[in-house]
Amino acid sequence: MGIKRVITAVIFAIAAFLVLFSDLTDAVDRTAEDIFYHTPSGTTDKIKIIKIDDKSINALGDFEKWDRGVYAQLIEKLCVSEEIKPAVIGLDVIFSSENNDEADAEFVKACEEHGNVVTAFSYVFESRFEQAGDNLKLNNMHVADVVKPFPALYDATSHGFANALMDSDDGYVRKSFLNFTQDDGVTEYSLNTEIYKNYAKSQGFEARLPQGTSFSFRYSGKPGKFENVSLSDVLDGTVPAEAFDGCIVLVGAYTAGMMDSYYVPVDRGQQMYGVEIHANAVQALMEEKYIYKLPEWAAALIGAVLAGILAYVCGGVSVAKAAAVCAGAAAARFAAGYAMFNLWGISADTAAFPMIAAVILGYFISAHYYSAKRAKKRIENAFKKYVAPQVVSDIAKSGTYELRLGGEMRDIAVLFVDIRGFTPLSEKLSPEEVVEILNEYLKLTTSCIFKHDGTLDKFIGDATMAVFNAPFDTDDYVYKAVMTAWDIVQGGKTLEGMLMEKHGVRVSFGVGVNCGPAVVGNIGCDFRMDYTAIGDTVNTAARLESKAPGGTVYISSAVYDKVKDRIKADGIGEIPLKGKSNGVYVYSVTDVEENQ
To answer: I need a surface site. Which of 367, 409, 464, 581 has the fewest CB within 10 A?
Structure first.
């Protein structure tokens, strides 16, 4: 059993490693991580959003027709003086064309004068096969075009590309570009990274950036949680410039009509505007709230070890305990994953281990079920050696097999049958012949007992004991006991002829049947017990059998009174029985009426 547990544990460990090392559970892991782990930590008051919303559009007209003087005015409203102005103004709007020379110039002048504006541009990516040595390689980020601010504005501001980085399988934004190196070797930073770099410079510290070209980050706020005001409220002076002093101010679309919203992990039922995603990414850069995924081999190895341990433990306990162990292990892994994600930003197969634990539990539930089923079948087969098969089939349908421990008083019929003259017969024949005769006799008695729904109690040397109406209630059990005795005697005649022809010996059977109350149950001790019947009713049946001549069925008056209308019997009279102070009136059965 120990080796089997170890082998099972190793198999589950290997399977877990292969599953975790592959990408099979990545999508489920990300979804579970979004729902259970990714809780916003709270937004900073250092980042504020000025919304281009429906209120602004209603006040200023169609957004597409705004001239750049609106933005020049906004910058002037925010930058009152060198002492009162935002640290950085990030414009999540692409000013790709020159619309009005005077307004454009005014806008460029405001940007140059205050030196704290970051404008957005955008790459147009497309997939294209490109030559890589002797092979073709699919490049999903081939730059087909770059949409930049008009030249004067581009030169007057810092700039970063505003492309959203969506997961390919579900379209959610869980990470941001950090930078991108163009074909000409020039590296450009994303809009949020450029904003953070400018903020760090304005505050006199060096920007610390993560490694790589992109970074996964933890969101600080759900949609609408960053402090935000309408652009029109800033322009008309409702919100004073002092509210933005020293802050990072992001200006961007905040209305569905501008088509700049995305699905995000912190609120799976509502989209977030692009300017809010930039705000979350900037705060993540400021507070270094990054998400690091464990290397696949490390996560797979940890999961494999845990799965192996779990499978080994479950293999040695009950189903209920296995369920508790699996639930506890899954809960502990969930809690550890939550702590790893929110304290250290480590992502490591959130949903995979609970799924593996569920599979392990399902395996052991199935194993226990089939083991119990096999045990039930063994019990059923064992019962069939003692109880009539049709009785066992009825019991099996109920699914109980309940036999009361200890004894109970039941009304039963008891049958004893014995071979007459077996001892001298065994002296004349070889042991092999004796065993053959005995087996034929036992086969006959057993088949007759089972035919009439009796229970084979035991073999006592060359005698057989059977009880009826125990351990289960049996209809018309007294009559069935008499029918069994009669069939044994009639079958004995056929067996006698066969044995006479084969071995030259005669055999016959004496049968005794009695009925009445007896103690029935598991008799013995906790390590050795027999299901049997004891009491005067049993002893009387045994004495009747001992008095019955070969080929004769003796029944007590108690039996006769219950079946006398369905049998023929001759009264023998009262005969003394060993162990009883009074004699018992005995009948010898001469015929029976079947199917009554």
So the answer is: 581
